[in-house]
Amino acid sequence: MTARSASAFLLVGIALFLVPNLREWMGFPVYILVFLYSTFYWITQATSWNILSGYSGYFSFGQSAFVGTGLYATAIFSAQYRLNFFLAVLLAGLITTLLALAVGFVAFRLRSLRGEIFTLLTFVVAFVLAAIAQLSSFVDGGQGRVLTPPRYPAFFGSYNDLIFRMGAIAAVIAVGAAYAIQHSKLGRGLFAIRDDEDVAEALGTPTFRYKMIAFAISGFLAGAAGGMNSLQVSYLTTDTTFNFIVPLFVILMSTLGGRNHWLGPVIGAVLIYSLQERLAGAGFADSSQIILGAVLALTILVVPEGLYVRLRAIWRLALAVFVIALAAQQVLGVFDSILTRFFVALVVVLPFVVVPPRRLAGLGWFAPRAVPPRPRPNPAPRANGRLDREAAR
Amino acid sequence: MLYVQTFVTGVLSAGILTLIAVGFSLQWRILKLVNLAHFSIVLLCAYLTYDLSSRTGIDPFVFVPVVVPAGALLTMGCQWLFDHFKVTVFNSLLLTFGLFIMVEGIITDIWGGDFLRINAAISPYSTKSFTVFGIAVPLAPLIAFAVAALLVFGAAVYLQRSYFGKALRAIAQDREIATAYGVNYRRVSTLLAAGNGAAGALAGVLVAVSGAVYPTASEAWIGLVFAVVILGGIGSPLGALVSAVLIGAVTGVGSAQWGTSAAQLIMFIILILVLLWKTEGLFKRLRV
């Protein structure tokens, strides 16, 4: 990560941190803060999943293992041992890091079928952890666990300001980490693993170490963010923590947005969380599981590369349509809630993203453009190879 | 005596597990697809059996000729999706996970989240048992075990001897070379899917006959079947039967000793140990 991009992420973080101060002045209601917190939470989770699973192609179904462990660990440290909340969240993150390393140690050493076995193993780990939590009265014991709001320093503002700010910090850290990894040697190694692990290994990529590092980072982010989410949860049960909703959400978000780029999970998280929120708002909360499962299956079949690549080609058109859709709703006075208007505008943009680019060729400045491939650094000239040196020049 | 009893019950519970595992494992090794939708189809067939039998009041085994083709057709539909959209092995995981979640939601929508059980007056199998040397042998798992054993030995012999089995092994080794030598991939994969679906549907009928059905039952099967498949070696019907018996016996005795949650833990530890020391499974020789 260069100093420029690092300061850009820092600036975004500071700006987001100050948003609650401007709320009264900008005049938006409090529930927007809560909505944005949840969006940040899912951005963090999806990004955490994407760092290992998107970049390296090892799909984990065990995100709920990290989230659940993080939640229970935070609850135990913070509520039972009266530890500082922020410290408890960090400790929860450390525990899930160890969990990730243990699972990775078993799965990543395999020679064949490692991808599939890793996926099924993560699935089983979440299941078994739920069973352990059920058994152990220290953790849950089948009784569930009541959470109390933690104490926190006054500069975080009111409780809603606090959760918004925590969510923003978590999301900026996670997305910043994903950005930094993508632009580092580790990221290139992970992409090489995804493309062909045997070749990558033969060319000297330390595949086992890279996968372990990526999984550890992913586990830390997922566990710490899960622990942070205890701010919004008042009662924990194994059924509501170690379930399929978390892996479904993160996989769907990353896949829909695009697994090869740090922005993919962000786009996917915004889309899917607003969809879920509007479904619940419209009284379809019960069937949201069916709808989201269907969206995942359709995404794999129709846009397996994700929306990011498409959006990048037509971003002018998409932005124009989005602004027009928002303005039209304002002028016509339909849909009062900001969230609904935002969501409707997203839905209006979607067809433009999904149609084949050649259909939009006649739109002049708005027409899709071919995305230029990322410029790659020239290969370093090899010692005593004249031809190589000439080619590098 | 208690241990002998739980051992017998555990071993017999391997029947249903094997029936589910065989199709999953063959599809994984030969077609390079991890089909989580297989579990959904088994559960759907169980619910279908429950529904038909409870509505009409007829013995559930009468509906085998209805449910088995339904399971085969559903699996063939999934296979068509994989082939038509050229789904890779990793995308097949995500795709079928989406389908799995979807079916779970649909089942909950139609039948609700409760435990459902066919009335004992219609289906006496789940409660009936007979005693051998003082050990109760429950009837439904015994039927399941017999069906599974017959099917597994039949499949092993058939796949070893027939042209179809040879074609499957050729595809498993190298799909492109196999098709270049005249193996019709689409036909073979569809046939295999039909077989898997039929075995899964039989498992579904037996699930409905031997106990209660509920929407999240399929989640528990995934872990067990995964352990069975890894332990027995991927793509080995006989290995699946042997390892299902092993896992059934261990978890049966374990759950009598320490409770059902602990049994899952034991199963998990066995799985981890096998993954660490003997990745190719314990029964490599039994592979077709």
Mean pLDDT over all positions of chain A = 83
- Hey, roughly how much beta strand do the residues of chain B contain? under 5%
What structural class do you assign from the helix and strand content of chain A?
Answer: mainly alpha
Termini separation of chain A comes to 27 Å
The number of strands of chain A is 2
Output the helix-strand order of chain B: HHHHHEEHHHHHHH
Rg calculated over all Cα atoms of chain B: 19 Å
Helix content of chain B: over 70%
Biggest interface goes to: A-B, 45 and 42 residues
Q: Outline of chain B, from the CA principal axes?
A: globular
What class, by secondary structure content of chain B? mainly alpha
In what range is the share of β-strand residues of chain A?
A: under 5%
Number of H- or I-type helical stretches of chain A: 17
Strand order of the largest sheet of chain A: 1-2
Largest sheet of chain B: 2 strands, antiparallel
Largest sheet of chain A at a glance?
2 strands, antiparallel
Number of beta-strand segments of chain B: 2
